[in-house]
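Raw record, unedited: Serine protease
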Amino acid sequence: MLRRSLIVLSVLLLALGTTPAVAAPLAGYTGIVRLSNCSGSLIRLPTSKDTDPALVLTNGHCEESGMPAPGEVIVDRPVRRPMTLLGQDGSVLGTLHSTKIAYATMTDTDVTLYQLDRTYRQIARTLGGHPLTLAAAPADVHTPISVVSGFFKRTWTCSIDRVVYSLHEAGWVWKIAIRYTPECDVIHGTSGSPIIDRTSGEVVGVNNTGNDDGEACSLNNPCEVDENGVVTVLRGRSYGEQTYLLTACAAPGNEIDLNLPGCMLPKPPGFVLPLSAR
């Protein structure tokens, strides 16, 4: 979907033990993660401490039990999921394991945030791995970016072409999505790849979809919808979701607290914000 499910060619390549041609990223593969069905990244929030349980970021539609339905929000769901951490040169440093999904949704955005069973300090000492930092500010148009796939060990470089008011695909709607310039023609299997600001080195988003066939608003064919309801379809163009909203919901210990003032992430159905936070 979305950039998740692998096309038949990719499956055959993996079965043969090969992958598509690799282009070395500007900053290497430090912090990049490979999942069973997607890419991801080991990330820290601006408030994270070395002694906090580490976090891995990927797409909501990469969540292993299936894609969250429109309006569905997952918080603090216990799950032990293995994932492979890469080193700067793309070599395998070792396996990480989650303890829970701290937050996941495909409503307004498309993110899954896993909390791990080891701290950043433990990962650095035992595996030599280091996280990327999540940017606390929105992404800007014309920012030079890299989309780094741990699944394929391949990187695309381009710029942010536009921040889209809303992006529609099948029954899902995503707000303030990032449209890439055409050079980032990412492929299926790159879902969850971090979008890295090549100037700051910070993660500004997560890669999630692209229009395959020129259809409007259908699966694998997202369409742009502006403030006035005008629909735009751009065949072959790819998109990601901004991630700065996660930083406003960060509580001590790398927890996600939807009650925090300024936290604008979608809440689970029936969620009631305490009076003190309204």
